[in-house]
């Protein structure tokens, strides 16, 4: 199984646990770590909409909690309307791009991002630097 297939499959499994009662839009994310392990996350909505957490943020926070923030190598993301045939690739929102950039700069690497639909469809591949050019982060503050 290729890296992209592995991450998209793990992201789909995570999306099955999304808590999305308000939008009905489930998202799963899977982070590939330097040692080959995968950390996943699913979106978690809240009745106070501003408190909603995206799947990428949940997974990145889990990596940080494990002391592995700088070990992220690649990310798989899937999303779509729950219970529907969602095959259009879903890309990370701006906030999640910034969250992923923090990890990327700490790890001194340009993350590979794989995106697909919730239930299938094509897998698109990007570099984080393509999705968030001229990013502000720890390097901007001289921290890495």
Topology:
Layout lengths: L2 H13 L9 E9 L4 E5 L12 H11 L6 E10 L12 H14 L4 E6 L6 E4 H4 L13
Parallel strand pairs: 3-4
Antiparallel strand pairs: 1-2, 1-3, 4-5
Structure commentary:
By secondary structure, this protein is an alpha+beta fold. It has one domain: Cytidine Deaminase, domain 2 (3-Layer(aba) Sandwich). The protein is built from four helices and five strands; from the N terminus they run H-E-E-H-E-H-E-E-H. Strands 2-1-3-4-5 form a five-stranded mixed beta sheet, with helices on both faces. The longest helix is centred in the C-terminal third of the chain and has 14 residues, at 94-107. The chain starts with a helix and ends in a 13-residue tail after the last helix. 39% of the residues are buried.
Features of this protein?
4 helices, five-stranded mixed sheet, 144 residues, alpha+beta, globular, Cytidine Deaminase, domain 2
């Amino acid at each position: 199984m290729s890296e992209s297939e592995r991450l998209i499959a793990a992201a789909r499994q995570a999306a099955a646990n999304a808590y999305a009662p308000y939008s009905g839009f489930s998202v799963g994310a899977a982070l590939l770590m330097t040692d080959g392990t995968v950390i996943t996350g699913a979106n978690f909505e809240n009745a106070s909409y501003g408190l909603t957490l995206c799947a990428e943020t949940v997974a990145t926070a889990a990596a940080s909690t494990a002391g592995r923030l700088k070990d992220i190598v690649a990310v798989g993301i899937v999303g779509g309307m729950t219970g529907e045939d969602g095959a259009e690739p879903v890309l990370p929102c701006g906030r999640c791009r910034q969250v992923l950039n923090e990890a990327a700069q700490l790890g001194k690497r340009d993350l590979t991002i794989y995106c697909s639909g919730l239930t299938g469809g094509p897998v698109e591949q990007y570099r984080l630097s393509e999705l968030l050019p001229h990013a502000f982060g720890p390097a901007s503050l001289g921290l890495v």
